[in-house]
Amino acid sequence: MISPPHMLASSNFRIESDCSDQTGPRAGSLDLPRGAVRTPVFMPVGTQATVKGTLPGDLKKVVRAPIILGNTYHLNLRPGVEVVRQAGGLADFMNWDGPVLTDSGGFQVFSLSKLRKINDEGVRFRSHLDGREIFLGPREAVAIQDGLRSDIAMCLDVCPAANDSQKEVESAVNRTSLWARACQQAWEEGTGPKEGRNLFGIVQGGRFEEMRRQSAEQLIELNFPGYAVGGVSVGETEEEMLEQVNWTTSVLPLEKPRYVMGVGTPTQLLRMIGMGADMFDCVMPSRAARHGMAYTSTGTLNLRNEKFKEDYSPLDENSDCAASREFSKSYLRHLIQAKESLAGTILTLHNLRFFVSLMEEARKQILMGEFERWSARWICSYNSGA
């Protein structure tokens, strides 16, 4: 599917692999103001202008993250967009030397449902911090992200719950499309230069294939430089989630980047890459680390277990991450039992590097034409260990 010409079609995304299949794996390159991002890519989540428990320098040198994600809703509440704007944008504010993607606050519309009222103009809600009333509409979401100076900004959307009725999902899709048009207009009318920055649209539609298709087609008409698959992993089963991703990637333009928001496990990521997805983010690696969980080449490990008390082997000797090779399971278990914050830091670096390096290997296998065979073997081995 070839998009019509439009001023937003400037994502500078190039597919570097042989990708004639609409839902086949692809390796690409996305040129952004703060650097090039090779895809497939996993983006660590830095909700509050920090990836919890890590220094930005370690994200670059140890994790080797090409791009990170910030949260519009939370950063607008604290410290406030003007504070970040005056610092030169989110990357400069947090001393991160790389590209940044910011979400729009749409997921908070979903997750803070008890604190908000929604209509075609936007969302009025109470701050979870101090209870003050706040309004977030398409123009506000774009203005905040413009102040954050993100390399990729996201349109404001409505994320339905997994069990919402078809009528409720249809309303969410229509409102998402309405807001996408308003976001696009606000982006084009913005006062500051965009300098290669991008605004992506978000496809909704819940568990209804026709709604997913309708949402995608409405957004494709607006010709965004990239598209996201939103509203997945919100209560549905894994297979239902993957089915929704596949429905969406089968409709989205071949030549534009495809971002699946908020997921997933290592095996889910590989399966979605096989469906033609390019970009991912998830809090899972850092959240698991804070609970003593490690993702390794032999499956997940719960380092709280007694069996690791005298296990002096490296956390993962197959990893190229110093945090994975230089500390034993016994030592990490000790730190966890002693409630030392260093445990979370080491495990966060390890887990994030595991996810980022998995994407690097997937890209390598795609370029060699071996992804399907390699992915099937990797998933089988990982599941056996897990």
Commentary on this structure:
Helices cover 42% and strands 16% of the residues. The protein is an alpha/beta fold and 386 residues long. It folds into two domains: 13-282, Queuine tRNA-ribosyltransferase-like (TIM Barrel), CATH 3.20.20; 289-385, no CATH class. Strand 15 (293-296) and strand 16 (299-302) form a beta hairpin. The longest helix has 27 residues, at 341-367. The two termini are 40 Å apart. 49% of the residues are buried.
What percentage of amino acids are in beta strands? 15-25%
Structural class of the secondary structure composition? alpha/beta
Strand segment count:
16
Shape: globular
Helix content: 40-55%
CATH class of the largest domain: Alpha Beta
Main sheet overview:
8 strands, parallel
Strand order of the largest sheet: 4-14-13-12-11-10-6-5
Corresponding CATH architecture of the largest domain? Alpha-Beta Barrel
The CATH homologous superfamily of the largest domain is called: Queuine tRNA-ribosyltransferase-like
Count of discrete alpha- or pi-helical segments spanning 4 or more residues: 15
Q: Outline of this structure?
A:
The protein has 386 residues and is an alpha/beta fold. The chain is built from 15 helices and 16 strands.
List the helices and strands and how they pair.
Elements: E1 13-15, E2 28-32, E3 35-39, E4 41-43, H1 56-63, E5 68-71, H2 72-77, H3 81-86, H4 90-93, E6 100-103, H5 106-111, E7 116-119, E8 122-126, E9 133-136, H6 138-148, E10 152-154, H7 166-189, E11 198-203, H8 209-222, E12 227-229, H9 238-249, E13 258-260, H10 266-273, E14 279-281, H11 284-290, E15 293-296, E16 299-302, H12 322-325, H13 329-337, H14 341-367, H15 371-385
Parallel strand pairs: 4-14, 5-6, 6-10, 10-11, 11-12, 12-13, 13-14
Antiparallel strand pairs: 1-2, 2-3, 7-8, 8-9, 15-16
Helix pairs in contact: 1-14, 6-7, 7-8, 10-14, 10-15, 11-14, 13-14, 14-15
